[in-house]
User: Which sequence fits this backbone?
């Protein structure tokens, strides 16, 4: 029995294979940042969830390249962000999410833990809170 992923570049009636891991684990993550909304003219009265989410995103993007061996096969991509509905109010909440791809279960587990710690601590350092769903 063969289970195959679609590979549209191959000729009809053919398939390809190789030894070792072929496709990665695919995990989804969602981060919800809770700050305190404020008028844009008085940001000091709030905790800007967009700024906190931006700091978390920047840190997550460098986590894979600075905290893991360069030979480990892993990718973390933030693929969406949602915050605010108007131009003059700092939103109290921001949400973003993305995907993680790994080939090794130990790397996968370590990345999840490191990402969770990073999210919670960056939020706390800014006076916000954050939830991390994997």
Assistant:
């Amino acid at each position: 029995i063969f289970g195959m992923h679609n590979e549209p570049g191959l000729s009809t009636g053919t398939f390809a294979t190789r030894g070792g891991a072929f496709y990665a684990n695919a995990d989804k993550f969602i981060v919800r940042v809770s700050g305190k909304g404020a008028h844009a003219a008085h940001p000091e009265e709030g905790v800007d969830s967009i700024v906190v989410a931006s700091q978390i995103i920047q840190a997550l993007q460098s986590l894979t390249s600075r905290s893991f061996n360069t030979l480990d096969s892993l990718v973390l991509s933030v693929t969406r962000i949602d915050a605010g509905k108007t131009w003059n109010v700092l939103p109290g909440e921001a949400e973003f999410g993305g995907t993680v791809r790994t080939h090794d279960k130990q790397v996968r587990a370590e990345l999840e833990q490191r990402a969770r710690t990073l999210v919670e601590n960056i939020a706390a350092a800014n006076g916000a809170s954050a939830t991390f769903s994997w």
Summary: The helical segments are 49-66, 105-125. The radius of gyration is 19 Å.
